[in-house]
Predict the structure.
Amino acid sequence: MLNVDLSKLEMALKDLTPDEKFSLPLSDNVIESLLESVEPVEPSANLLSELEEIILHPNEEQITNYENNSLTFGEYIEALEENMKDLLGPSSVREVFYIEVSSDHLKRIKADQIDKVEINDVSQTIIGLCIPFNYALTLLHRSFKVIDLKKRKLFAPSNARTAEELNTEARHKTTFGSMKSLLLSIDKEKQITDIENDWTNFQSKLRKELKHANYI
Amino acid sequence: MSKQNNDLENKVWDLLANQTTSRNAAREAAKILHEYVIPKMMGLLVKRGADRITAEEVCKEAVDRAITLIRRFDPKKAKLSTWMTRIALNIFRDKYRKHLIPASRVESLNEFPEQERGDVPTSGESIIEDDPQEESAFIGLVRKVFPSLSKEEQDLVNYFIQDLPKEKYMESYSISDDLYRQRKLRTFEKLRLLLTPLMRGREERSPKS
């Protein structure tokens, strides 16, 4: 068929598979028209309560308290962990990744991706989340700093390559040992404003440590 | 959609954007979505090939993802239901292509052999990118030339493919029946001209039997 016949073209477009029919970019106009013309399918009654739970931000009350400084960071994490218990799934294929967090970060982490939260053994500001590796990478793409203490690697957009190149045990020991002591120096009982101040200090100290260990 | 529905959608958007702290408000937003938005979204997913259970799961995930992405939504550019539907279609596409939906849960799509299927992201909202499956030669070529059409022409082709009434298109672009016929002829002629050299190239490259 060296020339495409117009009527054959129309027929071919009409004969696309259901999947192919949605393979061309759809404008809002088209989607709106599709929604108007489609036969509605009634959702189950259960969906209503599930939507309600999705819409109601998890730990909303705790977050409000946290932001109003009436909860410490540690209490907030505990509340978060408590809330996640119902969402936990099997963790066999998951790893613990340590993630640098702020209150804003925590709100952006998808609870259903997290199996477990670890906090006290490391710090108040770097929390351990048991999440799939792919999700850790997704967080990394969203400018989270994901630190894998098990593998002793620091994943961060700016220095991931350097970290890989300099993956020597001695340097890791120095760096993470210093990091841990720095982190533990943050008072767990302090209110969030204080923690944030500490966090700023911590970051500058950490930067020095990382520089010292040739990470950056 | 009626003004009443638009008002309801705006109300839901407001509640989602402000991360409501009130259970009553969350219940109200859920009720609006459940009653007015989800049934249409599910209908479209079923038309797309999903069964009811899958359609419901995808809608739930779409709402969840919409909440995460709510700051990207601009009510001046699109309706909330349109935006959520786009997200739902992308989720379904990603799940389907990653074989995350059991074969028994995708009804009509399984009538077709894998090599005849193809897909592309329909918007920038897709979170998961995956490896495209092998697509049919024809849709592959149509996809290739599609960006060369204007938005009006692209819409016309999509209205045609989706079996949407031409009156909807005419209403959307405020054009008469005559103008629609002219535009359709022009669009398909353009598509034909764009496709012909590509198809000729394919035929010439194909080994002769």
Observations:
- The two ends of chain B are 55 Å apart (CA to CA).
- The CA atoms of residues 12 and 30 of chain B lie 8 Å apart.
- Chain B has a mean pLDDT of 78.
- Residues 177-205 of chain B form the longest helix (29 residues).
